[in-house]
Amino acid sequence: MVDIRPKVMLLDADLHADQEAELLADGSSHTDLRGINLYREMSAQEWLEFDSMINLRPSFGNRSRGVYEASTRTRILALVDRMVKR
Question: Is this structure's pTM higher than 0.70?
Fold first, then answer.
């Protein structure tokens, strides 16, 4: 789970909802949270997945489980590249 505004990431939980609750309790906003999956055993092109039920938020204009906005994907990729070593 990533919070794209303060550039925070939580890893390794059973559910993105658990991480979302933790980030919200720390002051994050729903509009800045995105769910991602990391698969270390996969190739560099496939190891980051932007698919999560937590991303499905019709009230914020997102009617899918993915992250399709290019600028948001770029911010997430930069955060993961900076914080996660493969």
Answer: yes
